[in-house]
Amino acid sequence: MNWLKTISAAAAINAALFSYTHAGENLDQIKSAGTIKIGTEGTYAPFTFHDASNKLVGFDVEIGEAVAKKLGVKAEFIEGKWDGLIAGLDSKRYDAVINQVGITEARKQKYAFSEPYIASKAVLIVSAKNDDIKGFEDLKGKKSAQSLTSNFGKLATEAGAELVGTDGFDQSIQLVLTGRADATVNDSLSYFDFKKKQSQAPVKVVAEKADADYSGIIVRKGDEDLVAAINKALSDIKADGTYKSISDKYFGQDVSK
């Protein structure tokens, strides 16, 4: 029995050493190649999309480029559909994924995340002329434009609102603007993006939920050295103003918290 325990302990130590070595080797390989390969969708504005000239652009793209610069390498983006995007890490198609990947306990069981680099909150949006709705509690008996299967729809229902079904944020906002709905509970990032593009649109946020959902840069489990390097890069771009510049460009404000 003691012999079996010794073998088991040795195996555990070797596994840990292999994981640690692999993490260091991956970061070394990235620096040696001079490139960090980043998986992204390329179809998810304003985070990762193609502009009129078909160039890949977006908030996540510029964050990836800024992080790569701090690592002393170039960012190479590899596009893929969301359904298989994270799985591309398993096949080593790329070194990281930057695509608004929410940090969840389920994902953390299989993958490693950087520190959060962007936060989104549920916000209550109404017409600029609406002075009746000041908080979520005022939604009772009011019409709220929502995607019926979303968490935002659940929040509106819990507040006592009557739901008006929509296909997403854009349609929800239009119903509020045209008076066919009194409000919409939606994502703060989508709202900031909308107001950045249409600053004169007569809508406003009157309340927000305190709890935020955070996204991080996701890499393979065991890449602790790479995670540490990415975290330092994120810290550096926040400290030197690069993050604020990118955030202001796409959202008109700091969206890190």
Report on this model:
The radius of gyration is 22 Å and the shape is elongated. 43% of the residues lie in helices and 23% in strands. It has a 3-stranded parallel sheet. A 3-stranded antiparallel sheet has the order 10-7-11. Strands 2-3 form a two-stranded antiparallel sheet. It has 10 helices and 12 strands.
What secondary-structure arrangement, pairings included, does this model have?
Blueprint: H1 2-33, E1 35-40, E2 49-50, E3 56-57, H2 59-71, E4 74-79, H3 82-85, H4 87-90, E5 96-97, H5 105-108, E6 111-113, E7 118-127, E8 143-146, H6 151-158, E9 162-165, H7 169-177, E10 183-187, H8 188-197, E11 203-215, E12 218-220, H9 224-239, H10 242-251
Parallel strand pairs: 1-4, 1-5, 8-9
Antiparallel strand pairs: 2-3, 6-12, 7-10, 7-11
Helix pairs in contact: 1-9, 2-9, 2-10
